[in-house]
Write a structure and sequence with these properties.
globular, 6 helices, four-stranded parallel β-sheet, 107 residues, single chain, alpha/beta, 46% helix
Length: 107
């Protein structure tokens, strides 16, 4: 299994000083480059913990071009969410997408 994370859940876990909980999945934790930029864009107290996680727990993976069906499904999401969904949709393995946005859960 692979876990693809959006910005919000990673920041929330880091704020709680529990980013280590991402490791309980026993899976690779992936974020797209845009999510990485969002995670590091503001100097917040949790930024150091996020930087450390990006060094060993979280991997950055490029998002392949989206298919038309995926593009239609993500058109109302913000860019980071769009990339997280696109990355998850492109993977051939069983994938868990972790995000927090209401728009991302709406059909």
């Amino acid at each position: 299994m692979i876990v693809v994370a959006d910005t919000g859940p990673v920041i929330a876990l880091a704020t709680l000083d529990r980013i280590d909980l991402l490791g309980v999945f026993g899976a690779d934790i992936l974020v797209p480059p845009r999510v990485r930029r969002e995670l590091l864009s503001k100097p917040e107290p949790e930024t150091q913990e996020i930087e450390q996680a990006l060094g060993h727990l979280i991997q950055v993976r490029e998002v392949p071009p989206l298919g038309a069906r995926t593009e239609d499904a993500v058109d109302r999401l913000d860019p980071g969410e769009r990339d997280a969904v696109g990355l998850a949709a492109a993977l051939d393995e069983e994938t868990l997408l972790v995000m927090d946005d209401q728009a991302g859960r709406s059909p």
